[in-house]
Design a protein that fits this description.
By secondary structure, the protein is α+β, with helices and mostly antiparallel strands. The chain has 29 helices and 35 strands. It is globular and about 105 Å long. The structure holds ligand ANZ.
Length: 962
């Protein structure tokens, strides 16, 4: 037998063996042998989209981590589910296909094949029988099915129900049929607003409505509904984009095409209905029923707070102002504003409307807004001037908002005076109304009461237009004004004193002032407390080809009907989006070109209907893939119910922090809908979330600033030179295409071995940190493995293992076991590896390594470097016949861990009364408990509940004063 550590051969052998023997497969739920009472561990990776350029060594960092964790859990006796799949629908795959002039259906499967083999090359123990790809019909049929569930449901925000543990929850998704029956039986009235929207007489009943009207009413409740809204339209890509897909310059993230705002009929997901639960469940105890423990989300605090900010819950008050007719003191209409600071009502010196506010659009219809507008000067905002340039300014606003009005926050404030006035309800002051784009129609009421003394943005505006500033909040001592105005909390001033005005709040602290004035406003019917969210509903249609078709048809009477999946994407030679340079061109999704053969169809009653021609966005498939992995071959259900409640929630979910909001929020939303409808058993899908850091690397630019592929760079003394000998500029960046500094895993694997690569990636630093790649580092790791190999085999290939372990050797062994186990459990792989290296250095010095020690060492190293350890185990007479992957994880024996204890004297009221042996890093709480359990100490304390002071001087003494 070959005696050298020949990693190339060894790694190939084990890689093939694992695949052939399906070593890491998890029994299927339908398998009669399946043991539902074995403890489970569901470990999930954020699945990749199958890009054409394949993986570089930066990509698998998270995958190596979950592989180590899964192997560790398997050895600990858990039934581990560790699947992998591909996020293969959507823009990236489609753009790649367009650029390479191939069809997405072929190129996607080809890319999947090559990425799969790269993942297998890395020795990752996935259960490949469970592979899914979101673009395959047997998968997306169920994405469509879930869409139908959303379409056929509404959110009853008043429905009170109890979760499995009897906790009361307010609000639930219910079948739309309930709503239909409620309307039909007059248990629910059609509201005034609904009648106005439907253009039907007030107090109409369900039976007075025609079918189209009834459907329109239901549509306004559905969790997936259709509406005409202002969207980011990118004619260059031929599709609508989410705000997040648009850069701050108003260009598309992909391709850098201009983006325009335009109204478009869209399918939308009512995620806002779940805002409160999506927020609350981030920090709540989540029940799973009697036999299963409740859990809390163990997520990085930064991700939780990003989700909180994204949802943006804001408690405030809506206040009703009146708007006067132009040049008159008669009331024209009402104007509602949303404020978080009703205590500043006496400091309002102007109002600002969003350019899209309906009052701005009233113009000639009502004669309220002048044909030409007053000039935009301080003299004129007070009164009567007229100037046509104002009209121009206003139309410029319209243009401005057309060109993606993102990032208006930091721009210099601009605005115009409307020439009309509002009346402040608390003091009847007449205040001018302006229009400015720093107020957005998307939030609150699209109109604000401006308080320049206490709001930075209003202050800037007031400065610019020379508007008065009235202080109404006085800072308390430790909260003095920072900027030009005081936005903090304090005590109300200049806001009438008691008796002068029903709204008087002078002298009250901000909290009480808000409360008091809100109550008074409510009593007078001109205000009510309310909650606003920054979260917007989710625009769910894309005018592209490579996505899930909707399971919907449109009826000739103008409403949609859901139809049974699967709706298979028609094969189309020309799948390209209909692009144009003209933002006003009518929108024509590619599926239109599939022709009437595809989009015309008949209902069972013979009515001819038209299929929906938009497709779903990329996010759809990834919203629920973790459920399909549980039971990927099920043809009758998205996933077997018993298997779902066994495997859910996902115990560990590892992926990039870039998915902090969208994917993680969308998936949680769908999950909650499925939970409400009774399809899944846990209120949240992902119990523990972890974000791996990036791998960065040196990148080199030539003197034109162009990046030179890292493999074309010659390295000398830490500097890089081009092929022609030109010295290059060295920078650092995230490994990848952009900086041309990615290296394929096969290249590193061939040179150093995959086990070395795996170990090195985990050793570079804490998993969550971004760390630079270094060739020096990887060589060090290779030397470590060579030493491990030589510990087992001398040059003649003979085993050098045997004999009994000494006390000291056992102590090191158990301590290392304890440490490595704890580090892996907490995903601190770098320190786990450091412990193994340290231990191995001791082993190197021993001539013959005792059998027990060798066996434990191998098993601890196995999750990190599975190929070499399996090979050693298989060559060794005392090895595990099952192989290490199913060998039992070593247990640390407490007895051998004890020498780490330190002994401290215990003093009670100045006298030493006993001694205690404790671990040096015991918490004060645990120590106190231990001391209180010591009878020989306790007898000196009259009443343990009345201990005055309990002091631990670390490493010195425990001091009790009573
Ligand atoms: C008066 C006031 C006085 C305000 C004061 C703040 C401080 P959050 O916390 O984000 O909810 N506002 C309301 N609607 C707006 C819109 N559509 N576009 C831009 N700004 C809007 O912020 C709520 C505050 O933002 C509201 O409270 C309002 O200004 C402004 F000393 O009203 B405030």
């Amino acid at each position: 037998m070959e005696t050298k550590y020949n990693y190339t051969k060894i790694e190939k052998k084990w890689r093939e063996k694992w695949l052939q023997e399906k070593t890491f497969s998890t029994p299927a739920a339908q398998d009669p042998e399946f043991e539902f009472d074995q403890p489970k561990c569901y470990v999930l990776d954020m699945f990749p989209y199958p890009s054409g350029s394949g993986l570089h060594i930066g990509h698998p960092k998270g995958y190596i981590a979950t592989d180590i964790y899964s192997r560790f859990k398997k050895m600990q006796g858990f039934n581990v589910l560790h699947p992998m799949g591909f996020d293969s629908f959507g823009l990236p795959a489609e753009q790649y296909a367009i650029e390479h002039n191939v069809h997405p259906s072929t190129i996607t499967e080809e890319n999947i094949d090559s990425i799969r083999s790269q993942l297998q090359y890395l020795g990752l123990g996935y259960d490949w029988d469970r592979e899914i790809a979101t673009s395959r019909p047997d998968y997306y049929a169920w994405t469509q099915w879930i869409f139908s569930q959303l379409y056929e449901s509404f959110y009853d925000s008043e429905h009170i129900w109890q979760d499995v543990n009897g906790k009361e929850i307010v609000g639930k998704a219910l079948p739309i049929k309930h709503l239909h029956d409620n309307f039909l039986n007059n248990e629910r009235k059609i509201s005034e607003e609904e009648c106005i929207n439907l253009e039907i007489p007030l107090n109409s009943k369900w039976i007075d409505l025609n079918v189209a009207e009834q459907q329109k009413l239901l549509n306004s409740y559905r969790l997936a509904y259709q509406d005409e809204i202002i969207v980011n339209w990118c004619p260059g890509l031929g599709t609508v984009l989410a705000n997040e897909e648009v850069t701050s310059e108003g260009k598309s993230e992909r391709g850098d095409f201009p983006v325009f705002k335009r109204p478009l009929r869209q399918w939308i997901m009512r995620i806002t209905a779940y805002a409160d639960r999506l927020l609350g469940d981030l920090d709540r105890d989540l029940a799973q029923g009697q036999d299963r423990p409740s859990f809390q989300l163990d997520w990085p605090p930064a991700i939780k707070s990003m989700q909180k900010n994204w949802i943006g819950r804001s408690e405030g008050t809506n206040v009703l102002f009146t708007v006067l007719k132009r040049n008159s003191s008669e009331v024209h209409s009402n104007l509602n504003v949303f404020t978080t600071r009703p205590d500043t009502l006496f400091g309002v010196t102007f109002m600002v409307l969003s350019p899209e506010h309906p009052i701005v659009k009233l113009d000639s219809e009502t004669n309220n807004v002048p044909e030409s507008w007053p000039e935009n000067t301080p003299e004129n905002w007070k009164g009567d001037g007229e100037d046509e340039h104002v009209q121009k300014t206003l139309s410029r606003y319209a243009e401005d908002t057309d060109r993606s009005s993102l990032n208006v926050e930091n721009r210099e404030k601009t605005g115009i005076f409307t020439g009309i006035y509002a009346v402040n309800p608390v003091n009847n002051d007449k205040i001018p109304i302006f229009v400015s784009d720093y107020v957005s129609m998307d939030y609150g009421e699209g109109a604000i009461m401006a308080v320049p003394a206490h709001d930075e943005r209003d202050f800037e505006f007031a400065q610019k237009f020379q508007l008065p500033v009235i202080n109404v909040v006085s800072p308390t001592e430790n909260d003095s004004p920072e900027g030009k105005c005081f936005a903090g909390r304090g005590v109300s001033i200049n806001s009438p004193s008691k008796g002068n005005n029903v709204y008087s709040i002078t002298g009250l602290d901000t909290e009480s002032a808000i409360k008091k004035i809100t109550i008074s406003l409510e009593e007078h019917g001109i205000g009510n407390s309310t909650v606003n969210y920054k979260l917007r509903d989710w625009i769910f249609s894309r005018q592209r080809y490579w996505g899930e078709p909707f399971p919907l048809v449109s009826h000739p009477d103008g409403y949609s009907i859901s139809i049974d999946p699967p709706i298979v994407l028609p094969p189309m030679e020309d799948f390209r989006p209909t692009t144009s340079e003209d933002p006003n061109q009518p929108v024509q999704p590619p599926l239109y070109r599939a022709g009437p053969d595809w989009w015309k169809t008949e209902l069972t009653d013979g009515v001819e209907v038209i299929r929906e021609m938009n497709v779903m966005p990329q996010w759809a498939g990834s919203c629920w893939y973790y459920l399909r992995f549980i039971d990927p071959l099920n043809e009758n259900r998205f996933c077997d119910a018993k298997a779902e409640s066994y495997f859910m929630p996902v115990d560990l979910y590892v992926g990039g922090a870039e998915h902090a909001v969208l994917h993680l929020l969308y998936a949680r939303f769908w999950h909650k809908v499925l939970y409400d409808l009774g399809y899944v058993s846990t209120p949240e899908p992902f119990k523990k979330l972890f974000n791996q850091g990036m791998i960065t690397a040196d990148a080199f630019q030539d003197d034109r600033g162009v990046y030179v592929d890292i493999r074309e760079v010659e390295l000398r003394d830490g500097e890089g030179y081009s092929k022609t000998g030109q010295k290059l500029i060295k920078t650092t960046g995230k490994m990848g295409k952009r900086y041309k500094n990615g290296l394929p895993p096969e290249e590193i694997g061939a040179e150093y071995g995959v086990d070395t690569l795996r170990l090195y990636e985990m050793y570079m630093g804490p998993l969550e940190a971004s760390t630079p790649w270094s060739m020096e580092g990887i060589r060090g790791m290779q030397r470590f493995l060579q030493r491990v190999w030589r510990n087992f085999f001398n040059d003649a290939g003979k085993s050098q293992i045997g004999g009994e372990a000494t006390e000291d050797q056992l102590r090191t062994m158990h301590k290392s076991t304890e440490r490595v186990c704890d580090h892996i459990e907490n995903l601190r792989f770098n320190t786990a590896i450091a412990s193994l290296i340290e231990w191995n250095n001791e082993l190197v010095a021993i001539n013959t390594i005792p059998q027990t020690v060798a066996s434990v060492f191998l098993r601890l190293l196995n999750p990190f470097a599975p190929h070499i350890t399996e090979e050693i185990n298989s060559r060794w007479d005392d090895g595990f016949e099952t192989g290490l992957s199913s060998a039992p994880w070593p247990q640390a024996d407490e007895e051998y861990l004890t020498d780490e204890l330190i002994t401290l004297p215990i003093q009670v009221n100045g006298k030493v009364r006993g001694k205690i042996s404790i671990s040096p890093d015991i918490s004060e709480e645990d120590l106190r408990q231990k001391v209180l359990d010591m009878e020989n100490v306790i007898k000196y304390i009259n009443n343990p509940e009345q201990i005055k002071r309990f002091i631990l001087v670390p490493g010195r003494i425990v001091n009790i004063v009573c």
